[in-house]
Amino acid sequence: MELFDLYDDERNFTGETIERRKPLPESRYHLVIHICILGSDGKMLIQQRQPFKKSFPGKWDVSVGGSAVAGENSRQAASRELYEELGISHDFSHDRPMLTVHFERGFDDVYVIHKDIAVSELKLQAEEVQAAKWADRDEIYSLIDSGAFIPYYKSYIDMLFNYRTKRGNFSKE
Questions:
Q1: What b/e sequence results for 103-137 when a residue is b if at least 16 CB atoms lie within 10 Å of its CB, and e otherwise?
Q2: DSSP at 156
Q3: What CA–CA distance (Å, rounded) separates 125 from 8?
Q4: Is residue 170 assigned to a domain?
Q5: pLDDT digits (tens, 9 = 90+) for 90-114
């Protein structure tokens, strides 16, 4: 039985937990993480979800995504999910999310990390991931347009790619 910590709308831990797949109580939220891995060639490592997944079966997605389990903070969840889904170890102790997306049921901390790794070196989690590959922005746009990628806003994908060389939300020019 997997448990999630519950947070209020200010992201304060309430001391409550809930079982996965149970409806969240009113005014309670849970923590999700996504990791975007960008290579030195400017491409993003993307993964294809298994066809039997409940949400977005068979769709392509950013490198890693998942929920924090009870007792985990965002960094711990990111480290665990990255290792579970792709077999990659990364120390997130000095990383901060590039952004936090507030969605209907929670908070989504999005990390952008830089790593060059061959797809053949990945250890894909059979329960979650059926394939992985490196893709440039245009290929991801095409996958979104064809319905083969989770239907993210293209501006979100742009932001992830732009964070490869830039930080913050304004130009220093």
A1: eeebbbbbbbbeeeeeeeebebbeebbbebebbeb
A2: H
A3: 32
A4: no
A5: 999 999 999 999 999 999 999 999 9
> pTM of this prediction?
0.93
65: nearest Cα among 47, 91, 52: 47
**Minimal CA–CA distance to 18: which of 30, 36, 34?**
30
Residue 47 near residue 122, CB atoms below 8 Å: no
Tens of pLDDT, residue by residue over 10-37, are 999 999 999 998 999 999 999 999 999 9
**DSSP conformation letters of 90-124:** ---TT---SEEEEETTEEEEEEEEE----GGG---
CATH number, domain of 107, equals 3.90.79.10
Q: How many residues does the chain have?
A: 173
Q: How many domains does the chain have?
A: 1
pLDDT at 140: 98
